[in-house]
Each structure stands twice: as structure tokens, then as C-alpha cells.
Amino acid sequence: MSRNMVWLCLALAPLPMVGQDLPQTYSIAGTVVQSVTRAPLPRTRIHLYDYQHQKVLDSTLTSSSGEFRFSGLTKAKYSLRAEHDVYGSQIFGNKILRAVYGSAVAVGPGLDSENLVFELIPGGVIKGIVRDSDSDPAPRIRLLAYRLTGPLKTAEAAGFAESNDLGAYRFHGLPQGRYIVSATGSPWNADLQVSESLATYPTTYQPGTTNLEQARLIDVAPGIEAQADITMTPVRAVNLTIRVSKFDCSDRNMAFLTSQVGNLDIPATAYRLSARSRPAKDGSEQDCSLYAGSVTPGKYVLNVTSGLAQLAIRTTIEVEEGREVIEVPLTPPATVTGRLTVTGAGINPPMVYLRVEGSPRTFPARVQADGTFRFEGVPAYTYQVFVGDQHPLAVTAMYGQGAKMAGGSVVIPESGKVELNLTVDPNAQDLKGRVLSGGKPVAGVFAILVPKEEARWGVGLRMDQTDTDGTFRWLGVAPGDYLMFASAEGTELDYQNAGPLVEKFADRAIALTVQPGTNQSVELDLPE
Amino acid sequence: MWISTVLNAALCLAQIHSGNPAPPAETSNKTITVSGIVQDSVTGQPIRRAFVTLNEFAGGGQEQRQTASGEDGRFQFLAVRSGGGTIRADRLGYSLRQIDIQATLTSDWTDCVIKMDPLAAISGQVTDAHGEPLPGVAGQAIRLTTVRGFRKMAVEAWNNTNDLGEFRLWHLRPGRYLLKALGRRQVLFYMGERGLMQTRESYGPVYYPDDDSAASANIVLLKPGEELAAHFSLKPHAAFRISGRILGAVHEQALNATLSRSGGEEVAARTAINVENGSFSVDDVPPGDYTISMTEPVSQSPKSAITEVHVRDRNVEGVTLELLSSPEVTFELDGTTGSGPRTQFASMELHRADSKSPNPEQRLFFRPGTASSKLTLAPGRYLVAINAFGGYVESVTSGETDVLVSGLAVSSGVTPAPVKVKLGSGGGMIFFKSAGGDGPGNRDVPSAPALIVGPVDGPWIPVEVERGGRQDGIGIQVAPGEYFVVRLTDPEAEYRDKSKIAGDIAKAKRIKVVEGQNVEVQLEAEEGKP
């Protein structure tokens, strides 16, 4: 540098002002790639969100080489979302499509946030041809793909498809996992048959069985097409009449027969029942009869609603060939009453919720000043119990009678009185931690906290995916004894049964006792 | 995917036994065998597993029997009683076909051929400007037909593209179509905070191959059995969000939401409706003038809400949609003019402008002395076709609106002025006489050409002379004046629009009708018709 230049530089250099610090800014930058082919993805929209993923702060489009950059950021954590025409919307750090967890990007001194690889996961595909028993293509067959997240009873509906004139169907955008495919519909000539008994297709599981236990388990992986052809065999149907005693056939009634997989009703196999009044034999009150033509023999759940959304009857019935009339007594659904006890003083949570397991359907009840609450007309399902609104309080005890309770879930019967008492601990705290592997922070792995006491597994289990700096949070942890561990396979684990989980990770699980008000920070090691 | 199937009746000319005269039906206990083959009308190949239903007219009633065609397409019915009947063939992938069995048949009919028309299909592929597949785009086959001279454009089938950007529309009846790629259409019902994320681009509607408006788009002609491959390349447009609140919605109820451009053309959009508080958002909206409509699903009297929204260069917020009941519209006979002696009577059909079905939404009858009718009509535009008997239709009005010219527009929450029908008695009759006609009712003759009669002066309100069978001997009553008798070269012509049949009008006969007198119109025989 010449002397003149030096002088120029000195004049231009900002003079330090006493007492002022210019804020340091940082950048988030990286490349978006397809997670299987590793091909960079141009023209992908990237949105920058705050840490809570509530507010969009900025947006950009990836370059022709799939690169993006956000600059001028202050030290904080951010989250990213990508939007692609084919791969849809995915959050940075998602290990699997539609995952709840992602990894936030930590930005600050000493943190690397400019070499991110944002992987977009291609959906898995299940496709096939549906044929009838004469090997002709069967169109208009309605299919559902169920993803198994544990034993068969916990299948989640993941996709819907319909076969076309060639019998072809295709599920796409499926998260990886293990699936079963069910199919239902009628033969194309069902309405044309002159003879009395009408043909129908029973709920059939790929490759062609009506027995759920024999359904083929289909493995779905990102970007891979699994072939699953199905053969439908017709059976004779029943012209069904269901008589519900003393029930009023008012205008707004809706009645369905649905079959179930696990805890879920399968809407694709619902029979819509039409209600008609007929006078009772002794000429007194009217009997409400429900009619469905052409019902396939099998086990069903009868759902009758009066008014919208509130179920009045939910009961299992068996439809048998040759038995055309079924009498169903009107038994009112279960009532759930209980008392909420709050450990310590201070907080009075206003609401208790019962949420149908595996579904977003939730029933609320208001907590009275004396701590009691009451749910009227609760349909028979297995529920998870939540107390409080935005941040559910930790339920530390659940006891009562009239219903089976286990692991934070309560199984409400078809009718009767259920007593459900809950204890919550408002001294729940948020715990922070970090996962290290070989001494270095690890992003995108899972930190899991399991209560030692089996009765509290359902309500007390916590997990989180680590951010780019290896950190994680467990929210709303009640005081008590726990086991904690880290695992790379978080999304594949079966959280319905914490027992096998604890057994699996026994060798690395560490005991943790959480005291009220300590706000401790933990460190977990992930074996390499 | 929505499909509609329609009866496609045709005649299969049977061989009548020549020689012995046909014995009287009552004394015949003879039965015959009817057998034949079911064939694909395009390829000539036999059709296996067709459902063949025999309907015998016997002993004053009807009896049905069924069989299936074999692997060779052949079928057989034994012991068929004479007295006539029909044979109907159904097969997946084909239009239904029905043929007559002549009552005069006395010997075995062994070579009956039932030709079935295969249905058509369209395989589409949608890509963006870079050739990448576009999933989630709705492809629609919009069938163009006319009913009572009104153009009906109804979605015959639709399907969304899959991850490969492919869609398939199948079991399509032969006919004229517009093929449309509708952009990304999605409706989400949710609770709590999270609706849909806003996207900045949208893929506007495109009519195959590359038009953005229905008016100028190519008409796709689908023949029986045709497999059409259609490729669409969609370009993104800057898009915005319309948001607001729905009032009067029932908690947790699903609604049908549509976004349309002026003219009623549906535009794809992604709609999210919060079922708890009624707030909604519509995304993927390019700049333009729109109507948003939300309707309750089908029930006794579904409520609906419609509002206009103008989108320029930014999101539009604070839009209110109030769900209101469908109005009750009064229809009444507003008296008759003239002094004719005959009893007058009018029959009205109300067709929804956007309906898929050729059938009218409602039928009404008007007679002097009958009370008015009240109908609850779901919002939309209705087209009116009305025929008078023993008189003529002078006018159909609703307030200031001439309903015969403009149709009847019904909005939710607004009761239109009562629809008043005025009939005229007197006038004169126009009789139609065919060359060499031997009376109506001979079923062996194909339907007569489409004939309409319309006034030379004044608003163009044509009357259709009944189709089907011969028109020989049919008469219609009209007000005094000058008229065109128009023979339509295209039986599917949109004859309510004068400009669409200008050529036919130029060749039309012109007649004058005087009060109290009848006019006879000679119809020339057409080429090729008996």
C-alpha cells in the first residue's frame, strides 16, 4: 500500500465512538437439493421465519444452481421453509415428509450458518391396478393408504386415491414408512342386476384379502414407486334396516356405518343411512328406522348424529348375510365428570380437552371454580387428555372409574358414567439441552425424555429435534424422575409404547431428576 | 372424478319374416329365440361380458331377463314371447345401447347385432415453462351442448394432476368439449391458527391448447373411443390473496367455495376456511375481477353468499361474505290478452345456466285460475324455455327484466320481483306439413330436423317446434306478425343467439300471420331422409 493510500484508509476508517457498538449481522445461506438424487433445485421459493415459525421475515428464490442467501440477520435462531412445485412445502431439518419436527438455524459468532444443505424429500409412491374377479380393470374403486406408526391398530390415513377406467391408481407424496392399502366400491354392473341380491365389494386389503391381519405391508421409501395390484371379489350384500328405539327422526340427523382400522373410522367405506319414521307397533311413538341398501356383511360402527358434529350414538353392530333388520337400543353416550387438582397454588386452567387419538377431533370442557368439569355425550373412542390452552400443562396423575386408563389415554365406553380425575403440575418448566457426538454438536437428531413411572409415560414423554447448533428444548416438563437419551431415528420410533423404547436405549439412557424451578440444562451424548 | 352417462337409444332394424302373414298376437303361444352379438361400433370387435337385458312386453306387462355376452360377444335368449320388447346392452366403457324387438317377429332372430359406442378418454400432461411436471393442477373436460337453444357448458369430468403432472379424464361421451387446465385448486377446512401458506405465483386457467379464455378456445371434438393426448404448458402469474370472514356459517360445517371470473368461468384457487371463526383466505388469484361464492352443501334450502372482488396489485383483505337463505321466487300468470275462446295453458322449464344435466331444474305450469307458485331457487342464473298451448307467450318478466331475453338472475338474500307470465289468445296458427308425410308416430324414421320459428321484428325469442317423430301436422300458435321458419343445419346450434344461426336465417322461409287465420308451411324433404 503507498503512503497516500494509507492516509486515505485512515481517514475513511470509522472513528470508534465511545459507548456505541455497531451490531454484527450474519447470513444464512445454502443449497437446496433433492434428498435422494442430490440434484440442486433451482426456482425453489425459500421463506425465512422467526424461531417459532409464526412470522415470515423474508423470501427468496433459489438460483439456477439451487443456492439461496439471507443477509443482515441479527444473532438469533430462525427457521426455513421451502416451497417447490413438485416437492411441496418442507421445513428445513424435516427428516421425513410432513414431519412435525425440523431444525432451526442458529446464527451468531462461531456458528456456521452459510453452508446449509436444505434437502427436499421426494414423496414415495404406491401404485397399482385394481381388477375384478374376471381380471377386468375395476374403475371407481376408492382406495386409502394407511401408514403404520406402531401396531396395526395405530394406522394413520395418509392418502386417498380412486382407480380410473384402466383400473389404475396412484398414491404419491407419501412419507416413508410401512403402509397397507384398502379398497372399497361396487362392481360396475351392481345397479344393473335384476336379481334380488346385490353384489358389492367388501373392504379389501392389498393384494385382495378382507382380513386386516393378512394385509400386505408395503414399504415406501422417498422417490421409489411400490407396485401394489389389488383383486376385488364381490359378495352378496344385505338390504339393511336398523331400528333405533325411541329415537327421533328429525331433519338434521345423519347416520353412517363405518368400518374401522385401529382407532380410525374409514370414511371411504361409510354407508350413508337414510332415516325414516314409522309408527311403532302399538301406535304410540314413532320409531326411527335407518335404511341402507346393499351393505357388505361385516363389523361396523354405527354413528348417528343429531345436529351437526355432536354424536348421539356410536355403537358397534354386526351385519350378517340373511339378517336384514337390526334392533339398536338407544343408549346415551358416556358422560365424563371429574375434578382437576393443581399441585401448588396459583394457576386455574380454564379448559380440559379430550382428543381422539390419531385425529385432530377434540372435545372441550370448561373447568368450574371448584375444579370440577363435565363432558356431555362423549362418543366411544380412545382419547388423550390435555389440560390448558396454548401450552398444555403436565398431567402428573390420572385416575377414576368407568373407563380404562393407561399411559395418558382414556378409553371411553359406548355409554355410562366415567369419572376422570386429573392432577396437573404448573411447576412444569422448559428444559434446554445439547446433543454432542464425538464432542461436536449434532443437528437433526432427537433428544427424548421418558418418565420413569409407567403410568406417566403417555402424558410425560417429551422429544425434540436438535437445531443446527445441536440444541433442543423439552417444554412443560413436570418435576419428577426421568430417563433421557439421544437417537438419530426419532421419527421411526413407536411412541405409543414407551416400554420397548426404554428397553431399546437402555444402554445409553441417563437418569434425570427434575426439581421444581431449577431450569437446568442438560447434555446428551450420541454414540457414533 | 364426475361422470354422467346417458341413454343413447338407437334402432336395430330387425328382419321381418317375409312370406307368411304375421298371426294375430293374442292367439300366438309361439316363442322364439333371440340371439346375436355385441360389437364395438368403432373396431367391430366382439364385446365380452356385456350385460344384456331383455324386456319382454307380454300379457299386458313387462318381464325382464338378463344374460352376459360370452367371450365371443354372443348372447342368447330362449323362449322369447312375441309381443315385442327391447334389448338393452350395458358395458363398462361404452354408451348404453337399446334396440327394439318388433312385435311382428315370428321366427328366430339369430343375427341381431348390437353395436355399442366406446366412450372416449383424454390423457393430459401439464408442465411449467421449464418442462417440469406440475402436480395438483385440475384438468377439466367441459362438454358443450345446447338445451332448448341455450348453450350449456358443464364440467363432464375433472381430475387433478399427480406427481408426474399427469391426469386422465375417462368415460367421456362423444361430443364437443373445451379442455381446461385449471391451475391448483384446493380447499382446506381448519381449526386454530394455521390456514394455508400464501404463495406468490399462480398458474392461470388455460384452454387446450393455449388459450386463456373460453370464448376463443378451440373446441375439441371427441369421437367414440377416441384417446386424446393433450399437453399443457402453464406459465406462472403474480398472484395475490383475498381474505375476510364468512358470516352466518354453522360451526364446523364444510362449504362449497368457488372463485369465478365475470361470465361465470371458474378459476382455480386455494381456499382455506376456518370452521371455528369463519375467517377465510383465497390464494393464487391473479389480477382481475372475480366473484367469490360459498354455498352450504346440498340440503333442504342451502344458504349461500356471493360477493364481487377486484384484485389489482396487492392482497385484498376484509372481504365479508354473508350466508343467506335462497330466496323464494313467485311465478304467476299475469292474465291473458286477446279474446280467443280456447283455454290457455303454458309449460315452463327453468334451466340452470351452469347445470350439467339436460333436464330442467324445475317445471312449472300456468293456467288461468291457478294460484301462483313459489319456488325456492338456489342462487345462480336461470334460463327459461316456455311453450304455450291454446295461446302464445306474450311476455315473461320479472320487474323490468325480460326473462326470456336475459334469463333470471337469483342472488342469495335478495328476492327477485315476481315472475309474471303473460299469455295471448288469438293470434294465428302455423301448421307444418311434410312432403309425402304419412302421419306422426312411425318409429322407424329418424327424428325430424330441428325447426324453430322466430319473429322477424322485435327481440329474438324463438319457439322450437317439437323434435322427435315427424313434424307433419304439428301446429304452433303465435301473435300476429311476420316470422322466420328456420331449419337448423346444426341441430345443436345455440339458436337463442341470433348471430349463431345467421346463415340459417338467411335461408329461412318468411311467413305472415294474421289474427284469426292459419298458415300452412310446407317442409321440403331433406336429402337422404325418407
Write structural notes for this entry.
- The complex is a heterodimer of chains A (528) and B (530).
- Chain A is mainly beta and 528 residues long.
- Chain A has 3 helices and 42 strands.
- Chain A starts with a helix and ends with a strand.
- Chain B has a 5-stranded mixed sheet with strand order 1-7-6-3-4, with no helix packed on it. In chain B, strands 10, 11, 13, 16 and 17 form a 5-stranded antiparallel sheet that branches. In chain B, strands 14-23-24-20-27 form a 5-stranded mixed sheet, with no helix packed on it.
- In chain B, strand 6 and strand 7 form a beta hairpin.
- The chains are: A mainly beta (528), B mainly beta (530).
- At the A-B interface, strand 12 of A face strand 4 and strand 12 of B.
SSE layout:
The complex is a heterodimer of chains A (528) and B (530).
Chain A lengths: L2 H10 L13 E9 L10 E6 L5 E6 L5 E7 L2 E9 L3 E4 L13 E3 L8 E5 L3 E9 L9 E7 L6 E8 L5 E7 L2 E9 L13 E7 L12 E3 L4 E3 L2 E3 L2 E2 L1 E7 L9 E8 L2 E16 L6 E10 L2 E8 L5 E9 L5 E4 L5 E9 L8 E6 L5 E5 L5 E7 L3 E6 L6 E8 L2 E3 L2 E3 L5 E9 L3 E9 L2 E2 L4 E6 L5 H4 L1 E4 L5 E7 L2 E8 L10 H7 L5 E5 L6 E5 L3
Parallel strand pairs in A: 1-8, 9-16, 9-17, 19-25, 26-34, 35-42
Antiparallel strand pairs in A: 1-4, 2-3, 2-5, 5-6, 5-7, 9-12, 10-11, 10-13, 13-14, 13-15, 14-18, 19-22, 20-21, 20-23, 21-22, 23-24, 26-29, 27-28, 27-30, 30-33, 31-34, 32-33, 35-36, 35-39, 37-38, 37-40, 40-41
Chain B lengths: L6 E3 L21 E10 L10 E8 L2 E8 L5 E8 L3 E6 L5 E6 L7 E8 L3 E9 L8 E11 L2 E11 L5 E7 L2 E10 L1 E5 L10 E3 L2 E2 L12 E3 L4 E8 L1 E3 L1 E8 L8 E6 L4 E2 L2 E5 L4 E7 L2 E8 L8 E8 L4 E7 L5 E10 L7 E8 L9 E5 L6 E4 L3 E10 L2 E7 L2 E2 H4 L1 E3 L8 E6 L3 E7 L16 E5 L7 E3 L9 E4 L2 E7 L14 H5 L2 E5 L4 E6 L7
Parallel strand pairs in B: 1-7, 2-8, 9-18, 14-23, 20-27, 28-36, 37-43
Antiparallel strand pairs in B: 2-5, 3-4, 3-6, 6-7, 9-12, 10-11, 10-13, 13-16, 13-17, 15-19, 20-24, 21-22, 21-25, 23-24, 25-26, 28-31, 29-30, 29-32, 32-35, 33-34, 33-36, 37-40, 38-39, 38-41, 41-42
